[in-house]
Amino acid sequence: MDKPLEGIRILDLSRILAGPWCSQHLADLGAEVIKVEHPERGDDTRGWGPPYPEGCKDAAYFMCANRGKRSVGVDIAHPEGQAVIRELVSTCDVVLENFKVGGLKRYGLDYQSLKEIKPDLIYCSITGFGQSGPYANRAGYDFLLQGMGGLMSITGHPDGAEGGGPVKVGVAVVDLFTGMYAATSILSALIGRGRTGEGTWIDISLLDVQVSMLANQAQNYLASGDSPGRLGNSHPNIVPYQAFASSDGHIILAVGNDLQFQRFCDVADVPLLASDERFSTNRKRVQNRDLLVPQLERLIRTKPSAFWLRALEKQGVPCGPINSIEQVFEDPQVRHREMQMKVSHPDSGRLSLVTSPVRFDNQKLTADQPPPGLGQHTREVLDELFPEEGYLDTLRSKGVVR
Predict the structure, then answer these.
(1) Catalytic hit among 93, 175, 290, 347
(2) What is the CATH number of domain 241-322?
(3) Where is the signal peptide (predicted)?
(4) 3-state SS of the chain?
(5) Digit-coded pLDDT (tens) for 229-251
(6) Which fold has domain 9-212+340-397?
(7) Is 175 noted as a catalytic residue in this protein?
């Protein structure tokens, strides 16, 4: 199928996760993504292992965020490397970068400089704290921002409970959210340019994204003046909505409304619990959480997980297991949706990757090219711009390109 971003060219100067996650999504949607890397070191995540897929020189971490791109090795600290980048910019629709504030200005690769080359350029900057403010010059990392931005204050068990204390999310969720905010912003800017003919400079910060993704927890604070705390696996606004121990493991019970609670009580053979004035509505269940949850814990512990999952699903009560990642990829729904793909790779032969979750007209929008080797596409990309015989070889001999 024709992909929606075919014909759009992205010059990706970013590395690590937030920027590459953004550009990978755009590559899945059909954009041509040219990933610019240092000719010797490349993207830092190439070395963030083990594990390394069998036969590969690059870490699994790098593989998760760079499918479908072409890698060009250019030293942007070298004047001739900067000239190469400027030539590339003249052919691109979007520049994506995640350098520190002002980091690219000294190379003449900032928005104002590149706008002179391409007036309708869309330029997206991802930083830890934004282009302005007292923290603008600080470096920002996901773990740091999960703490500073409040996420860790609501993640983990309460102080005083067994295992209590702040906990980070198991993946770099601030980076991932930032990447998706950046992608949707770039797409919006492309639509806007199509209407006005003008480019724009997009300023996205990890801290801003983290604050925005506090969602209901932030609004809970703004509405009440009370800072939410850590509730372990419980939900601040819905009860019961948490993990429970069964007789042989754990299940997740996610009761979203009063009818579902009634159905749960029928399955658990305690119908009077649903009509108890203290628990008859979600509002009352939240208010009387400390009375209700211990009763549910005792009930659910009496039977194995398989009983609860089978019986509750039959009655339309949302529930599920707590799977390991191995179990996730064995799950029949995940298999049916083909969330794992295999692509040809020059080092490993066949490489397993996670696919994009996006589908248009029942067709997956996933780039079918593997993550690139460092500088794998330097010559084929730059030959288009510098056809003079021997020029690229001269740059390579100087260490400007790979």
Answers:
(1) 175
(2) 3.30.1540.10
(3) none
(4) CCCCCCCCEEEECCCCCHHHHHHHHHHHCCCEEEEEECCCCCCHHHHCCCCCCCCCCCCHHHHCCCCCEEEEEECCCCHHHHHHHHHHHCCCCEEEECCCCCCCHHHCCCHHHHHHHCCCCEEEEEECCCCCCCCCCCCCCHHHHHHHCCHHHHCCECCCCCCECCCCCCCCHHHHHHHHHHHHHHHHHHHHHHHHCCCEEEEEEHHHHHHHCCHHHHHHHHHHCCCCCCCCCCCCCCCCEEEEECCCCEEEEECCCHHHHHHHHHHCCCHHHHHCCCCCCHHHHHHCHHHHHHHHHHHHCCCCHHHHHHHHHHCCCCEECCCCHHHHHHCHHHHHCCCEEEEEECCCEEEEEECCCCEECCEECCCCCCCCCCCCCHHHHHCCCCCCCCHHHHHHHCCCEC
(5) 999 999 999 999 999 999 999 99
(6) Rossmann fold (3.40.50)
(7) yes
